[in-house]
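User: I'm writing a short methods note and want a consistent example. For Cytochrome c, I'll paste the sequence; you return only the structure tokens, no commentary, since I'll be parsing the reply automatically.
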Amino acid sequence: MALRDHVGRSGGRLVRLGALAAVALVGIATARYREPLIAQDTAPTFTKDVAPILYKNCTTCHRPGGLGPFSLVDYDSAKANIDDIRDAVRSGFMPPWHAEGPHGTFSNDRRLSDLEKSTVMRWIDAGAKKGDEKKAPAKPVYATGWEIGTPDAIVTMPEDFTVPAAGTIEYQYFEIPTNFTEDKWVSAIEFMPGAREVVHHVLVYAKVPAPANAAPAAPRPAGSPAPRPLFVRKPQYDSPEDPPRQDVRNGPPSRLGVLIGGTAPGTNVMTFPKGTATRIRAGTVLTFQMHYTAHGHEMKDRTSVGFRFATEMPDEEMRMGAYINGAFTLPAGQKDIAVTADLEPTEPIKIWGLLPHTHLRGTRWKYTLDKPDGTSQVILDVPRYDFNWQTYYFFKEPLDVPAGAKLVSTAWYDNSATNKHNPDASKDVKWGDQTWEEMQYTGYLFTVPSRRLKPAAK
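Assistant:
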């Protein structure tokens, strides 16, 4: 996955609004305000009506020391930026959310409700009054540094990597032992780049090296069936072989292991739903796949990953995977080009979250569940895909996918000159790591009911 700088937006104030926040978190913010919002007959005030909305939806980024360009924790700062707030709320540009579907479909839905929008707009139109300080809710308190609080374990790159001022940087791979002496159940993962400006994605893989004196695996008895894979192999979607590597440093290891987490613009913390956790085995070695992009001046990065451990074994083990179509061509100058891929399990699974990913030519996504009985339903529709806000869409209730069903992903691309983000409309475009190339990639989080760790509640 290649990840680029925030792409500029046209249209007056929305250019500035593109910096309203740099990262949207999948994890749940430290502070939550769950009191029902009731329509007011009188003009709303900051303390009584607006602060609860901002604290619930905005101050994760818009706080002192946060990633937003200004704080919304205090009245004075909020009032000083009411023009930006008005435009962001009216347009739906903030909080960032690009999927369709009713409220309640996704557990991490960042959209304001109609009542919340109306309250903020009425407050601004009525003069943005402060109100009675005694009616203000408690200000949210956020952990400093790590959003998940102090991690139970931190794994860090062994040394700094120097990102040059210019040029193409091939993916860099760093293997780091965890030194875990027992299996760990992880309930949340957070990524902490050392130089966020040049880190455009991190993927973390986990493997347990075989002991040096381990006996070779016994061959399968003659005539016995091969183990059935969990998913049907789709060779027609394979991506082309990587070109010969030019950089001899930090190349990929012979075995990456299983994917356990990743970060990209819009996703920095992964908090797994209650009753689930991902397992990291004793003796695991992590591999960080780092995608760096030069920013005009040399910088040093030393990325860390923090883990919060579950207090007990979960009901289900959360697993992570990805499926792609790497065999496409986007013809030069053409727009609205559809590229599909599908995931087909051989036994029932539950899908908990989906992450659509394309590069600068991607415009929209749609996912359908095509069932063996011939019925089909749309389960995720992202009509306004934004490369700068790549969201893991967590379903409030997991999606049951029966054996033989297909989870079909369709991404649309604009490779024409009318796409202002297009690096070069004169060239055919294929799969590739760099941002000026393209991808059709879906990350997904899933559990397998037949492999539950605890019996299901009756």
